[in-house]
Amino acid sequence: MRLPQTYSGNVFIYSSDDYASSKAVIYGMPMDYTVSFRPGSRFGPGRIREASVGLEEYSPYLDKSIEDLVYFDAGDLLLPFGNAAKSLDIIADYVRGLLNDDKIPVGLGGEHLVSWPVIREVYKKYPDLAVIHIDAHADLREHYEGEPLSHSTPIRKAAELMGGVNIYQFGIRSGSKEEWTYAKEKGIHFHPFDVAEPLKKELPSLAGRPVYVTIDIDVLDPSAAPGTGTTEAGGITSKELLEAVHAIARSGVNVVGFDLVEVAPIYDPTEMTPIVASKIIREMLLGFV
């Protein structure tokens, strides 16, 4: 059984206690050491799990119930506070074990840098991998103020590893001019501002391919998800994000891993953000697994 070094106590709704029979494994990555504005996303995984208690088991969108899905919630990884490099190594080691056990990794962040070691490990197993990245920010910086381990760099690292043509970005509405130029020069499938419609147009080309999906909650407008570290005006609605998730689920792509990151509950006393995030996770579990 691939348990992390610590256990969060609370689990996502209807998770199983049977690791061996589970097709997917949820794990938390409570790291927020490299954020450029507001920390607090290390508390996201726990609050998402707690918010899931308020969900209905049934998804009317997909006509499926999470009661019928066998998946395991392993809790949060024990990460050494402030040590980004060692934390990324711990995440990579854990995900490698999941993949060796033929599990689908389902990550809860945490800042977006935590997606990088996961993508790297999934790519080792699936060398024809494509990444669908849904976010307000391009995350294509080479470094942030001289630091290459930053929440603004994970997709740049993925593009350098896999080739830009295997990166599909949606909803981007913030970034440096250099990031926009980099996306164009490297052949990244770059779709700023909107998500659902451009995604639907790209999905046929990904049919049958292994795909990793990473969603930053700040792709949503701050009015829909204020609890995040780097809010950005002009975002999409939760309805459009659900539409995008359902489009992926119905497209025929082979989702081999996914995550949702950057929920920072301290900035949202209404708890709207973890509530939205938990519903997105439910729909991804039912649609992708």
UniProtKB/TrEMBL annotation:
<dbReference type="GO" id="GO:0008783">
    <property type="term" value="F:agmatinase activity"/>
</dbReference>
<dbReference type="InterPro" id="IPR006035">
    <property type="entry name" value="Ureohydrolase"/>
</dbReference>
<feature type="binding site">
    <location>
        <position position="218"/>
    </location>
    <ligand>
        <name>Mn(2+)</name>
    </ligand>
</feature>
<comment type="pathway">
    <text>Amine and polyamine biosynthesis; putrescine biosynthesis via agmatine pathway; putrescine from agmatine: step 1/1.</text>
</comment>
<comment type="similarity">
    <text>Belongs to the arginase family. Agmatinase subfamily.</text>
</comment>
<dbReference type="GO" id="GO:0008295">
    <property type="term" value="P:spermidine biosynthetic process"/>
</dbReference>
<dbReference type="GO" id="GO:0046872">
    <property type="term" value="F:metal ion binding"/>
</dbReference>
<protein>
    <recommendedName>
        <fullName>Agmatinase</fullName>
        <ecNumber>3.5.3.11</ecNumber>
    </recommendedName>
</protein>
<keyword id="KW-0378">Hydrolase</keyword>
<keyword id="KW-0661">Putrescine biosynthesis</keyword>
<comment type="function">
    <text>Catalyzes the formation of putrescine from agmatine.</text>
</comment>
<keyword id="KW-0745">Spermidine biosynthesis</keyword>
<feature type="binding site">
    <location>
        <position position="135"/>
    </location>
    <ligand>
        <name>Mn(2+)</name>
    </ligand>
</feature>
<feature type="binding site">
    <location>
        <position position="137"/>
    </location>
    <ligand>
        <name>Mn(2+)</name>
    </ligand>
</feature>
<dbReference type="InterPro" id="IPR005925">
    <property type="entry name" value="Agmatinase-rel"/>
</dbReference>
<dbReference type="GO" id="GO:0033389">
    <property type="term" value="P:putrescine biosynthetic process from arginine, via agmatine"/>
</dbReference>
<keyword id="KW-0479">Metal-binding</keyword>
<dbReference type="Pfam" id="PF00491">
    <property type="entry name" value="Arginase"/>
</dbReference>
<feature type="binding site">
    <location>
        <position position="139"/>
    </location>
    <ligand>
        <name>Mn(2+)</name>
    </ligand>
</feature>
<keyword id="KW-0620">Polyamine biosynthesis</keyword>
<dbReference type="InterPro" id="IPR020855">
    <property type="entry name" value="Ureohydrolase_Mn_BS"/>
</dbReference>
<feature type="binding site">
    <location>
        <position position="216"/>
    </location>
    <ligand>
        <name>Mn(2+)</name>
    </ligand>
</feature>
<keyword id="KW-0464">Manganese</keyword>
<feature type="binding site">
    <location>
        <position position="112"/>
    </location>
    <ligand>
        <name>Mn(2+)</name>
    </ligand>
</feature>
<dbReference type="InterPro" id="IPR023696">
    <property type="entry name" value="Ureohydrolase_dom_sf"/>
</dbReference>
